């Protein structure tokens, strides 16, 4: 009974993001298929990090990613990952870019690596600064490049920063 009262209070004071009149830049309303999927995954209480733990979900993820890659015209060898949101997607993108520019970082870490800088537009999402912090690039090395009225980086500004 006490638990039910706690649940009622949580519901009472929560934003009703599933209401048809709720609109937000990230999501809105309630999608019935998503609700069923959430119930299913929550009741199974698993996660998708290895095949042995969640074989059905691992195969589903690979299948959906392959289908998306095909629809987008990527080669059959293309891979992907589902991310829980834009911030994590940006973190993953910076991580992969850092690794591509410095493959030895996987074994050596940041020790002895050249100083890295991350260039982004002055309208870039705040998560790029966080990525710089989390990945050892440093927030002071995330360089915001001025943009024009259409949001495009000013290439002369980018060149000036690169040559600094």
Description:
The protein has 164 residues and is mainly α. Helix content is 48%, strand content 5%. It contains 7 helices and 2 strands, in the order αααααβαβα. Strands 1-2 form a two-stranded parallel sheet. Helix 4 (86-101) packs across helix 6. The longest helix is centred in the middle third of the chain and has 17 residues, at 55-71. The radius of gyration is 21 Å and the shape is extended. The mean pLDDT is 92.
Which helices and strands, and how do they pair?
Elements: H1 2-13, H2 32-44, H3 55-71, H4 86-101, H5 105-108, E1 118-121, H6 127-134, E2 142-145, H7 155-162
Parallel strand pairs: 1-2
Helix pairs in contact: 4-6
Radius of gyration: 21 Å
Low-confidence runs of at least 5 consecutive residues: none
Say how many strands there are: 2
Discrete helix count? 7
Distance between the termini: 66 Å
Secondary-structure-based class equals mainly alpha
Approximate helicity band: 40-55%
What are the key terms here?
mainly alpha, 2 strands, two-stranded parallel sheet, 7 helices, 164 residues, extended
């Amino acid at each position: 009974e006490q638990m039910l009262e706690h649940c009622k209070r949580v519901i009472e004071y929560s934003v009703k993001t599933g209401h048809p009149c709720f609109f937000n830049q990230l999501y809105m309303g309630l999608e019935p298929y998503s609700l069923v999927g959430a119930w299913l995954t929550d009741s199974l209480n698993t996660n998708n990090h290895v095949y042995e733990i969640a074989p059905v979900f691992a195969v589903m993820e690979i299948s959906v990613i392959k289908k998306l890659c095909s629809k987008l015209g990527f080669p059959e060898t293309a891979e992907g990952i589902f991310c829980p949101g834009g911030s994590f997607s940006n973190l993953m993108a910076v991580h992969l870019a850092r690794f591509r520019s410095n493959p030895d970082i996987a074994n050596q870490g940041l020790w002895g690596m050249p100083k890295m800088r991350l260039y982004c537009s002055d309208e870039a999402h705040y998560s790029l600064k966080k990525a710089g912090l989390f990945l050892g690039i440093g927030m002071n090395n995330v360089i915001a490049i001025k943009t024009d009225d259409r949001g495009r980086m000013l290439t002369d500004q980018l060149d000036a920063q690169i040559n600094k």
